[in-house]
Amino acid sequence: DVKVTQSSRYLVKRTGEKVFLECVQDMDHENMFWYRQDPGLGLRLIYFSYDVKMKEKGDIPEGYSVSREKKERFSLILESASTNQTSMYLCASSSPTGTNQPQHFGDGTRLSIL
Amino acid sequence: GDSVTQMEGPVTLSEEAFLTINCTYTATGYPSLFWYVQYPGEGLQLLLKATKADDKGSNKGFEATYRKETTSFHLEKGSVQVSDSAVYFCALSDDNAGNMLTFGGGTRLMVKP
């Protein structure tokens, strides 16, 4: 089974801090994704990556950046955390072969910015 | 652009009741369709999928049929259990958009004993 591991289940940070959320997958997947999940808004794509050192903006990239130095690891960075970035963050990975390949999700990181 | 619309929840049912969660979509290409489930405190898990018209995906007693003529992919289960309480997401992957997923807003299901 595919395993997507997010480094923290719960995280509390302060406004203005630089925050790193880490995600590792063990299935040699090329594609990796970061979403945030908010009540009433569903899942919104922040950034995605199709290969090492490659990144593409999703629907809501403002205030975030990403890093993909190794194939198995995809990091989400909040450059200067703000209270409106309090949310559940979900990482996912998938194989690029065809469009019927599902995304596999981690358990999420619930981030609170105080 | 692509979009997925789900019925709003929460849906509250008694144990052993019949479940339907409606999902309709719009897409520019020929999408694959998915249902994901999120149990409390967890990430999303793939529940079932269908890749072409008239395909039926099924898993754990849940079923959904890809209906191209009505652009729908409704989720059904004949007899729900308390353990089915979760949030259910309908999603599509469009062959014009690589491996990207477009999600519906999610439907919370609460099953009472």
Quick tags:
heterodimer; A: 114 residues; mainly beta; B: mainly beta; 6-stranded mixed β-sheet; 4-stranded antiparallel β-sheet; 0% helix
What can you see in these coordinates?
The complex is a heterodimer of chains A (114) and B (113). Chain A is mainly beta and 114 residues long. Chain A has strands at 4-6, 10-13, 19-21, 23-25, 31-38, 42-49, 56-57, 64-70, 73-78, 87-94, 104-105, 109-113. Chain A has no helices and twelve strands. In chain A, strands 2, 5, 6, 7, 10, 11 and 12 form a seven-stranded mixed β-sheet that branches. In chain A, strands 3-9-8 form a three-stranded antiparallel β-sheet, with no helix packed on it. In chain A, strands 1-4 form a two-stranded antiparallel sheet. Helix content of chain A is 0%, strand content 52%. With 113 residues, chain B is an all-beta fold. Chain B is 0% helix and 50% strand. Chain B is globular, with a radius of gyration of 14 Å. At the A-B interface, strand 6, strand 10 and strand 11 of A face strand 5 and strand 6 of B.
